[in-house]
Amino acid sequence: MNFDTVVGPAVVAAVVSGLISAIAMVVNRSTSLTTHREKIKADHELAEKKVSGDLKLAERKFALDRRLADWKRKTEIAEQVLADFYKARDIFSDARRPFANNGEGVSRPGRGDGETENEANHNDAIFAPYERLVKERDFFSEMHARRFRFMALFGEKGAEPFLVFSRAFNEVGVSTFGLIRPARMSPLPDKIRDKYEAAIGWGTDDEDRFAAKLNEAVAQVESLCGPVLRDMPEAE
Fold first, then answer.
1. Is 104 helix (H, G, I), strand (E, B) or coil?
2. How many CB atoms lie within 10 A of CB 67?
3. Basic and acidic residues bias located where (predicted)?
4. CA dist 10 to 5, 6, 23, 116, 201, Å?
């Protein structure tokens, strides 16, 4: 047997096998490195997306929290102001009753000065509506004190309803003292007397224009407060 003939092919086979193994190792290593780099890149992109998503979520939450805080402030003042206007309207409705109960009107300034008993009773009845309003002066002061905060949250148009009720209070006062006149003074012109009597609730017209103005003011407050009280902010 020729030894060289046997060994030669074996050596060649071994060398070839070694080369193939080396190449395979290089390829495997390259593939592993590529896969590793791709995994790192994918993980990095995923982390970036997560950070971006978390940031957007945090921004939306901050915006929602801010809207909720604004809504809460508006809701609190809206509930209070709307309740005030409902109560104020009822106070005016009760105050402008055309008849006086026993003992009403007796706080009238100048009562009894140069008056007969009948004149005093008549003037007491005239004074009674304003007297009823004056008893609620503290409530009206608190109500009007909320005007500027209401304007700050709902705009300057929120001031007008307050002014309507303030003018109404003053109108009842002016009308009351305009109707209380000593007998020696000349009577009021019919047009002025009718206007004054309408203000204190002694009007004869079927339509109460004085009350209608108050109702319009309440409706204006309802239109401003209603959307806030109905709609709670939601996440965008």
1. coil
2. 15
3. 110-121
4. 9, 7, 20, 148, 127
pTM over 0.90: no
Closest by CA position to 212, among listed 226, 202, 223, 198: 198
Q: What one-letter code names the amino acid at 142?
A: E
Question: Where exactly are the structural domains of the chain?
Answer: 67-230
pLDDT, one tens digit per residue, over 155-167 is 999 999 999 999 9
d(CA 174, CA 158): 26
Residue whose structure tokens are 């109707």: 179
Q: Name the DSSP class of 188.
A: P
Per the CB < 8 A criterion, the answer to whether 193 and 179 are in contact is yes
Distances (CA, A) of 183 to 106, 107, 147: 19, 20, 42
Alpha helix (H) residue ranges in the chain: 3-95, 117-134, 137-145, 147-154, 160-179, 190-199, 209-230
Alpha carbon of 177 to those of 14, 131, 132, 166, 173: distances in Å? 128, 11, 15, 17, 6
Spatial CB neighbours of 172, under 8 Å, sequence gap ≥ 6: 95, 96, 129, 130, 133, 199, 200
For 6-30, write each residue's pLDDT tens digit: 555 665 566 556 666 666 665 566 6
* Residues with Cβ within 8 Å of residue 11, at least 6 apart in sequence: none
Q: 129 φ, ψ to 5°?
A: -60, -45
